[in-house]
Every structure is written in structure tokens, then in C-alpha cells.
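Dear Dr. K.,

Following up on our conversation at the group meeting, I've run the structure prediction for Distal membrane-arm assembly complex protein 1-like domain-containing protein from Lynx pardinus. I'm pasting the input sequence below exactly as I used it, so you can double-check it against your construct before we proceed with anything downstream. Let me know if the numbering doesn't match what you have in your notebook.
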Amino acid sequence: MGSFLSQPLEPIKVAAPPEVTNSAEPLPLAAPGAPTSPAEAPLLNNCWSCRVLSGSGLIGAGGYVYWVARKPMKLGYAPSPGTITQMVIGISIACWGVIILADPKGKAFRAD
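The predicted C-alpha cells came back this morning:
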């Protein structure tokens, strides 16, 4: 019982580095354009359903941020610089969602 922080830490086992050989032949290189490690893999899969989900989510989030900033103005309060900044950020988030949905470079594909 208890939280994760109260549990004792387990030691991390680090693998030994591979031995270096002094051979005259260099290691073969990866094909150009192919990811050489998992870290270089694309962050988004660019499938159509992923773009619709993330794009519409960003549009909704941007609309909400804008709406929350606009609500006091409708009640008659003067806009402050913070309110204007919040509205600009909300519009920017929504525009980011539109760009994801529009796919201007045409890299997305439909996963059928």
C-alpha cells in the first residue's frame, strides 16, 4: 500500500557498450531517407482519422479559449492586454487545427 513515491527505487541495469573492433571495413550505412532510429520516426502517423481527431480537437480547444476570453467583454468589461492575448492564443490554436485538417502539403493518406 502507499503511493508510488513511497516505494523503494529499483536499481537501473545498464547494458555494457559493445566492444569496438579495429577492422578496416566501415559499418554499413542506412539507406538515405530511412529512419535510422526510433527517435527519428515521424511524430504523427498522418492518417486521415488522426488528422480529423487532432484537428477538430484543436479547433474546439481554440474556440473554448477564445470564448472564455470573450465572455467578460459581453458583460461590459473593458478588454485588458491579458484578455486580448488570450483571444489571440485561442484563435491561433484554432488555426493550427484548421491547418492540420487542411493538410496543405498533401502528406496525409486515408487508412482504409
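Two things stood out to me. The chain is about 45% helix and 0% strand. The longest helix spans residues 48-74.

Best regards,
J.T.
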